[in-house]
Amino acid sequence: MRVAEDISCQELVELVTDYLEGVLSPEDDARFEEHVGTCDGCGAYLTQMRETIRLVGRLEPAHISPEADRALREAFRGFSRGNGGG
Question: Dihedral sign, CA of 60, 48, 82, 66?
């Protein structure tokens, strides 16, 4: 009999940052890893997130064009206002 409830794909997406930062409870961490081990789509998503973090970790402000900087700032302002940048 299983004590922990299975994690859904949607829940995994919501927990991925906490998982990567190592702040999930041991139970949620185990549920997360069990799901990733059996769901190809979520496994690919986790791989993509890790690669994004790896690449962005090397991004320096000087590497961003003024146009991209402006677009990102506008998107974040829109996001903080609750309209998702649009």
Answer: positive
